[in-house]
Amino acid sequence: MTNPSSVDERDAGLAAQYEAYPYPERNPQDETRRLLIGSPSHLREIEYWVFGAQRPRSQALRVLIAGCGTGDAAIMLATQLARGTRQAEVVCVDRSAKALSIAQARAQTRKLENIRFVQGSLTELESLELGLFDYIDCCGVLHHLPDPVAALQTLERYLAPMGGMGLMVYAPYGRTGVYMLQDALEKLAPITQSPEARLDTARRIMRTLPATAWLRQNGNFGDHLSGGDAGLYDLLLNPRDRSYTITDFLTLLDQAGLEPTALMEPARYDPALFLPDPRLRAHITPLPWQTQAAIAEDLTGNMATHVAYVVRKNAHPRKPNPLDPDAVPIMREIPGAELAKQMTPDNMLPFHFGTLVVPVPLPPQARGILPLIDGERTVGELADILAARGVNASKFNHVWRESFDILERLNRVLLRAPA
């Protein structure tokens, strides 16, 4: 049984941490030269993986960033919505005044008018009277809360009908070495000490960390190397830091009445992708997808986080048929011509799943189709162009279906939502 005083002590430590070292460390002036892109909460991902490319882009979108920190997800999504002149409101909630001030300064630098900031705790959402949301982002937050299940259940109650969420939690195997050092530092720098004193101890440890320490062998993250004081503190000194295997994560979702529409990237959780042995693949294929995902995590060992788009149970959106002539394929971020250039002469696409690079086979014709995907041309128009090059309708359908299925699972080619 958890000691209530221990919970309070850790919660106080968390509050002190994020006031002293808002995370992640960001300079608002950097917004003049770059936009940080990631998952979850990329607009094209939300439209496809949460709403199944069925929700009109003209329909207003209400977004909650639950625990926005210094604002990475909020700034990315609000910027994408503003660039598309979309009707939207992005509400950012965090209990750290310092973190909110940084996120707000970033929004001011970008002159974003579709975003507002509310100081408050996720454990007291009802008192904030924020209403319902079409989409909720809760990235890197649940694993720091006293009761993640209760917190996620609360967020579910604030979803509008047919709404969904983007979530991220830490995973254990890709963070090998982190928890060993956290244990050592809690003995050397108890959470009752000031954040400054604890950070000083962590710095001293890192200067002379033994060569055999597992953290030195782990290249799956770099907060302790390039994340500044905030990154080092959050990685090694966070007073409450849980991690979830994919099985644990799916259980958490189930307890909150939610189910995933996609794990990011979907192909990453398919062990057959990196197990070419036919006999092994024959063993894998009949297994439940949840078991396959667990095998992928167990074998690769490099998943440091799990990212998922989720909806309420039995509310999984029905996505459009990619062979529909009126469907409009769209690149998630990397232009099609650039992706085609990455293909090797033997029609492999080297794909990075974190530190793991897997050669993914594509049909040879994908090299010619990818540069044609501009977010405006329909599948029917792509077929017409390929017909002029000697590819008949039957062949096109076969090649396009195979290409789309692969690239969708890599989260590189999606379908555009209707106007």
UniProtKB/TrEMBL annotation:
Please indicate if the UniProt record lists Repeat as a keyword: no
The molecular function terms of the Gene Ontology recorded here are:
methyltransferase activity
Entry keyword set:
Methyltransferase, Transferase
Q: Which domain of life is it from?
A: Bacteria
Secretion signal span: none
GO biological process entries: methylation
Any idea where the Methyltransferase domain is?
Answer: 59-165
Task: Please tell me whether the keyword tRNA-binding is annotated for this protein.
Answer: no
- Gene3D superfamilies attached to this UniProt entry: Vaccinia Virus protein VP39
What CDD domains does UniProt report for this protein, alphabetically?
AdoMet_MTases
Cross-referenced Pfam families: Methyltransf_31
* InterPro entries the record matches: Methyltranfer_dom, SAM-dependent_MTases_sf
Q: What PANTHER family does its record include? A: METHYLTRANSFERASE (PTHR43464), SLL0487 PROTEIN (PTHR43464:SF91)
Protein name (record)? Methyltransferase
Record the organism: Acetobacter syzygii
